[in-house]
């Protein structure tokens, strides 16, 4: 079930101000209000946040989530060189990017209790159909940081290209946990923010984004980056991937077909794992993909 966005959707609200600024309403009150089908919530700082995934959405997706994966602790991966807080609390992250519509539904669970985690902030970011990242168009196009061909440097030094200047092998992970290694967040080099956004999980631990099917760039298979925050802690940094038969189908059509020469697939990507595959079904003129993230909420390693 898809919910239309109102005119407040997409205004700049950082995830940090969202958590710190709800004031007397509290995150629980914010999420309860967000669960209604109409209206918006205004925080104590005057920021307006639009509704996100609702209980009815959770019911519609229950069967798909059940088939997606289990409560086994989700593997952490590199955050790559193109992460930054985009200051965008929103459901629809497409902006002006053309591509096949994709709904991404994520359920965040506690890996020990196997129950939903409400009030978690989930961020996702990925490249467009041509392999470009907003906020880093020059770097991801190869215009700087290693001279890769158009389509982008592979983040994190994956096979097939030269990592951007200053990026350690493996790409690093978010400071504060959620992955191996360490890397500073990107300082954006342009003012674009397409295909980036964050949502707060509802009582069922669910967030939902509307985006496009991600493109590809040299040295990496098709993927979407994700990060989960509990309070001020980054408890998971991971990636989501797709069955190659679906990638082939999507990439046969515009605008993807204009971007040729793909060199890395799931079977030769150095990050891919079967557990990162999303459960995907057709959804009108696009697709719906779901995945469970099981996080170590108490940070005890289990």
Automatic annotation (TrEMBL):
Name-wise, this protein is Intradiol ring-cleavage dioxygenases domain-containing protein
Q: Where is this region: Disordered?
A: 138-189
Show the Pfam families listed in the entry.
Dioxygenase_C (PF00775)
Query: Which residues constitute the signal peptide according to the record?
Result: none
Gene3D superfamilies according to UniProt = Aromatic compound dioxygenase (2.60.130.10)
Residue ranges with Gly residues bias:
143-160, 168-181
Ranges for domain Intradiol ring-cleavage dioxygenases: 85-139
């Amino acid at each position: 079930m898809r919910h239309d966005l109102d005119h407040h959707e997409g205004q700049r609200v950082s995830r940090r101000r969202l958590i710190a600024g709800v004031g007397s309403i509290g995150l629980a009150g914010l999420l309860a209000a967000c669960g209604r089908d109409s209206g918006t919530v205004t925080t104590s700082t005057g920021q307006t946040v639009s509704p996100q995934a609702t209980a009815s959405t959770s019911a519609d997706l229950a069967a798909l989530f059940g088939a997606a994966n289990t409560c086994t602790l989700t593997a952490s991966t590199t955050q790559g060189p193109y992460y930054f807080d985009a200051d965008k609390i929103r459901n629809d992250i497409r902006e002006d990017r053309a591509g096949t519509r994709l709904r991404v539904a994520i359920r965040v669970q506690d890996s020990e209790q196997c129950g939903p985690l409400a009030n978690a902030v989930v961020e996702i970011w990925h490249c467009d159909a041509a392999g470009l990242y907003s906020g880093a168009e020059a770097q991801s196009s190869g215009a700087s940081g290693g001279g890769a061909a158009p389509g982008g440097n592979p983040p994190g030094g994956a096979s097939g290209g030269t990592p951007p200047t200053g990026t350690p092998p493996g790409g690093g992970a978010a400071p504060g946990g959620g992955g191996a290694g360490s890397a500073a967040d990107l300082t954006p080099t342009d003012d674009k923010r397409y295909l980036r956004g964050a949502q707060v999980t509802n009582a069922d631990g669910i967030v939902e984004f509307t985006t496009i099917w991600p493109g590809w760039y040299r040295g990496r298979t098709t993927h979407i980056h994700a990060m989960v925050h509990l309070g001020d802690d980054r408890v998971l940094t991971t990636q989501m991937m797709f069955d190659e038969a679906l990638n082939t189908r999507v990439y046969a059509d515009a605008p993807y077909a204009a971007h040729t020469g793909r060199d890395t697939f799931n079977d030769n990507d150095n990050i891919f794992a079967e557990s990162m595959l999303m459960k995907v079904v057709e959804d009108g003129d696009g697709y719906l993909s779901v995945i469970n993230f099981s996080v170590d909420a108490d940070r005890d390693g289990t």
